[in-house]
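note to self — DONT lose this again. spent like an hour looking for the file last time. sequence + predicted structure for the chain T wanted, 92 res
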Amino acid sequence: MLLCLRSVANALRLKASAGFLEILWRLPIQIERRDALWLWQTVVPLARERHLSAYDAAYLELAKREGMHLATLDRDLQEAGNRIGVPILQIS
């Protein structure tokens, strides 16, 4: 019986994942390729100045450069965005 329940749960997860991927494919996602020097000169200093991970600093830099709102629930990232003039998308 447990094996049967696991199979059903796995099938539901796969269906949900497929639905998510289908939605994801519809989004206008663009891949931005940057060389290591650009990352070292732009993202790393921002990460150090604002005490952020490189990932968060890259996200913050992208929002600033593109003039977009920052969508995050991370308080440190919100504070860093506020300090450099990046508007924060209010998520409730």
